[in-house]
Design brief:
The chain is built from 19 helices and 15 strands. It is an alpha/beta fold. The strands form four sheets. Strands 3-4-14-9-10-13 form a six-stranded mixed sheet, sandwiched between helices. Helix 11 links the parallel strand 9 and strand 10. Helix 3 crosses helix 10. The structure holds pyridoxal-5'-phosphate (PLP).
């Protein structure tokens, strides 16, 4: 069963937790009890990734999906990845790099969104319902969400992005998708305008329910769940390669989604000694883990844009555990944060160390890893590696999660290296394909009219 971090809802099952997204009391959904799996670990070590994924997720799903169906979902979700190990681990200098970018859009969000798309399709087919996803993106999440649901029955997806303000590559990753259930809306405004319209439409309850609108935002429980899996995979693969039984894992962080999954994996019994949290200049989380103070700052644009976040949407889930599973304490901390932009927790959490990799340091890391090891880091992974190098251990391997393929950020790589070497055939192919998108004003009525027409009413 699933509960809310704010304690204001009756417990719900897995299906409702996934379809609900945000809990109705404004909190986030979490399992009422975390399964621990120390006994199962040895049986999991040799499993291929889709099998491991089904084994790790099954206790969270309970009886709502039989094991054979869950396995069919994980197999379908990861069949399209372009590496046989799905998330391969490579030794690069002092770091074990776990590449999470072998999915269709070459970024780690595919791992969760491929699964979420298949899961939504399964749950909707079972209940005969429809779902129309509406989102606003400044870049990466839009294409990964589209790739997750393209061609699926009972689902349409509408993605708003700021017209002329996303990189041509990112735009092509969305607008070259030909499936008729995919709708790319280039809105005449900024990313913030898109967010505003999104909020306006979601608070129009009549419209929302008439058109079965839903979201795929980073707080959806199934996204966190799918990400727990690769922490087990990392520990097992590195143990196999190095003979050392445990690892530390460094995670480049924005919304605290990815690293929160690692926190849960560790709590479940994955052999992870500690998590190394890495931020860019937008360092609210690094400051928190070093001082206990979580205080909102201003967003600074960097070369790792997917981590340019000041308020981390999954942080409330961590607060729930940090307060000893006390919804009242979470409510009061979050209320204080809403009012003053600041909250404070006493004591330190030994599960984490944290640091900041600046843009300049990360650019130097890209250069050094390319020259010394012939390995190309993307700008987000470079933040992780920059911070991970400060915490290397003599007794334990250090894994760093690689969250995107470098070819997604060709300008930054060219700037770091002085030459243009970041390529990927999947991105080159996009240049040949026709594109399809609709330009619309950044206004609620125009977007609603488009949705109503596209859905044929
Ligand atoms: C989304 C994203 C991140 C940050 O992940 P969070 O779950 O928000 O911490 C890091 N790198 C890349 C490339 C991303 O797309």
């Amino acid at each position: 069963m699933y509960i809310s971090t704010r304690g204001g809802i009756e417990p719900v099952g897995f299906r409702d937790a996934v379809l609900m997204g945000l809990a109705d009391d404004g909190g986030l959904l979490l399992p009422a009890a975390l399964p621990t799996v120390t006994d199962g670990l040895s049986g999991w070590r040799k499993l291929a990734y889709p099998q491991l994924a089904a084994a790790v997720m099954q206790p969270f799903v309970g009886t709502e999906l039989p094991p054979s169906q869950l396995l069919a979902l994980t197999q379908r979700s990861y069949a399209g990845f372009d590496d046989p190990d799905v998330v391969p681990v490579r030794a690069v200098g002092p770091i074990q790099v776990m590449e999470l970018f072998h999915g269709p859009t070459l970024a780690f969000k595919d791992i969760a969104l491929q699964f979420l798309g298949n899961l939504f399709a399964r749950l909707l087919a079972d209940s005969g319902r429809a779902l129309n996803i509406l989102g606003a993106t400044s870049g990466d999440t839009g294409s990964a969400a589209i790739a997750g649901v393209r061609g699926k029955g009972n689902i349409h997806i509408f993605v708003m992005y700021p017209h002329g303000r996303v990189s041509p590559l990112q735009e092509r990753q969305m607008t070259t998708v030909a499936d008729p259930n995919v709708h790319c809306l280039a809105i005449e405004g900024t990313f913030d305008d898109g967010q505003r319209v999104l909020k306006q439409i979601f608070t129009d309850i009549g419209f929302k329910s008439e058109f079965c609108l839903g979201a795929v935002n980073s707080v959806n429980w199934a996204r966190v769940l799918a990400q727990i899996v690769y922490y087990f995979h990392a520990a097992f693969r590195v143990a196999e390669q190095t003979g050392v039984a445990s690892v530390q894992v460094c995670v480049p962080t924005g919304n605290f989604g990815d690293i929160f999954a690692g926190y849960l994996a560790r709590a479940m019994g994955a052999p992870i000694s500690r998590l190394i949290l890495a931020t860019n200049e937008n360092d609210i989380l690094a400051r928190f883990f070093n001082t206990g103070v979580y205080a909102r700052g201003r967003v600074t644009p960097t070369t790792s844009p997917s981590m340019d976040i000041q308020v981390a949407s999954n942080f409330e889930r961590y607060l729930y555990y940090r307060t000893g599973a006390d919804p009242e304490a979470v409510r009061s901390l979050m209320a204080g944060f809403e009012r003053h932009g600041r909250l404070q927790i006493e004591g330190m959490d030994t599960a984490f160390v944290a640091g900041t990799g600046t843009t300049a340091a990360s650019m130097a890391t890209i250069r050094r890893y390319y020259e010394d090891f012939g390995y190309l880091l993307d700008p987000h992974t470079a933040v992780g590696v920059t911070v991970a190098e400060r915490y290397l251990s003599k007794s334990e391997p250090t894994v760093c999660l690689a969250t995107a393929h470098a070819a997604k950020f060709p300008q930054t790589i060219a700037q770091a290296l002085g030459r243009d070497v970041a390529r990927h055939p999947a991105l080159e192919r996009l240049l040949e394909l026709p594109t399809r998108r609709t330009v619309l004003p950044a206004e609620k009525a125009a977007i609603q009219e488009y949705i109503a027409r596209a859905l044929g009413s």
